[in-house]
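Q: Structure tokens for this one, please.
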Amino acid sequence: MFNESDFKYMKMALGEAKISFQRGDLPVGAVLTIDEKLIGRGGNCANTLDKWSSHAEFIVLDMFSRTLKNKEKSSVSTLYTTWEPCLMCLSISRMNRLDRIVYACPDPIGGATKLNPSKIGEWYTKKWSKIEHGIYKEESFNMLVKYCIVALSGLLIIGNCLLYNFIKVGEDNIYLHGLSHTHFPV
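A: Here is the predicted structure, written as tokens:
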């Protein structure tokens, strides 16, 4: 399922996630390739830039949008990300006509990759990216947990929800169990 390049570039995305963590941002990293050649990489900057839209995937795809638009039709573009893309990041991936999205760790709260493209329009059905997941999921998950424990004293803030009980359950499944949340004004 995954090839040598997939491991190489997801490891690079994990490096970007680590940089984000060290900055005080949610540890999510993204790497963009075309035909298995590095085009760009970046990490989540939502706290650093004080902008909710500063997700790793959004930053990288926005920065290299022109490169993607001008790539050869036969070329294969791949986005590697350490956490399952949210609706915004999945949308920008689609608008940039990515051929493939590979993510490490599922996001049971905000992940959008299970969205049924036939429910949102014919164009999406014809152009939907191939989506694969699970490569380095433990490493990504552990970094997210470390962020919750160290940076937020065991609390995770996504959007305007304060979440807790962020734990791993099951041999093959990573998800939030016993999730509780509190909404607060943005």
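A few notes: The first strand starts at residue 29 and ends at 34. Confidence is low (pLDDT under 50) at residues 159-186.
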